[in-house]
Design goal:
It is a single chain. The chain is an alpha/beta fold. It has a single domain, classed as Rossmann fold, CATH 3.40.50. Helices cover about 45% and strands about 15% of the residues. It has helices at about 15-30, 40-50, 65-80, 105-130, 155-175, 195-200, 200-210, 220-230, and strands at about 10, 30-35, 55-60, 85-90, 135-140, 180-185, 240-245. The chain has a 7-stranded parallel β-sheet, sandwiched between helices. α4 (about 105-130) links the parallel β4 and β5. α3 packs parallel to α4 (about 105-130). The N and C termini lie far apart (about 40 Å).
Length: about 250
């Protein structure tokens, strides 16, 4: 028997990186997967890959910085599958890099909208859907930068700190109603989000040096943690922040 037989999972940012890896693991464990992404091509490719492996998946395009899209994503899930049990609110961007005083207003607003407001919008519509069937599990994508500062990334750091606080607050509110809500804090993971940084050997080596393990992380490693937090094996874990960072925060 698999972990998620009969359950339905939404993954935002499911078209690449950690989201893509999570979609495949949810499907492998028996979940019906709603792959959501702004990139229709990649989202459809992930969906079709799951279907080719005899998994059950659909693609729903959504701009998670738009609350109407978040509501439509949940509505489409309920229309197709009749329930929602799991949500991995993973979509995010790196955004502009600049000193705080030089950071553009538009850059700030975009990063906060995609990385923080989206998590609120998604939970606003996911939670009522889960309550209808007695509960569920939500995992929100934070970052190691949800715990520490990082130069030239004020918006990203602020957004990820916000995700941690939002997660804890929602967990306090809904844990007694059967919804376990937690966040994960990856270190630097080899995904499209940092592909531009990796192209510079000096930058890549610097990023690696920040992790005592001596390498960057892989999407599948983070996805494994997300799957566990989504399952009944983590039934006593509420409002937690789980770093998965190769020792980054241990320094």
């Amino acid at each position: 028997m698999t972990l998620f037989d009969g359950k339905v999972a939404i993954v935002t940012g499911g078209g690449s990186g950690i989201g893509e890896a999570a979609c495949h693991l949810y499907a492998r464990e028996g979940a019906k997967v709603v792959v959501s992404d702004l990139n229709e091509k990649r989202g459809n490719e992930v969906t079709q890959a799951i279907q080719k492996l005899k998994g059950d998946a659909i693609f729903v395009r959504a701009d998670v910085s738009n609350p109407d899209d978040c509501q439509a994503m949940v509505d489409a899930t309920l229309e197709k599958y009749g329930r929602l049990d799991i949500a991995f609110n993973n979509a995010g961007i790196g955004g502009e890099t600049n000193l705080t005083a030089d950071y553009s207003i538009a850059g700030w607003q975009k990063v906060i909208a995609v990385n923080l407001s989206s998590v609120f919008y998604c939970m606003k519509y996911e939670i009522p859907a889960m309550l209808k069937t007695g509960g569920g599990a939500i995992v929100n994508m934070a970052s190691i930068l949800g715990q520490v500062g990082f130069e030239n990334s004020p918006a990203y750091v602020a957004a990820k700190h916000g995700v941690v606080g939002l997660t804890r607050t929602a967990a306090l509110e809904y844990s007694k109603q059967g919804i376990q809500i937690n966040s994960v804090g990856p270190g630097f993971i080899r995904t499209p989000l940092i592909s531009g940084l990796e192209q510079d050997e000096q930058v890549r080596n610097h990023l690696i040096s920040l992790h005592p393990l001596g390498r960057l992380g892989e999407s599948e490693e983070v996805a494994e943690l997300v799957i566990w937090l989504s399952s009944e094996k983590a039934s006593f874990v509420m409002g937690a922040y789980y770093p998965i960072d190769g020792g980054y925060l241990a320094r």
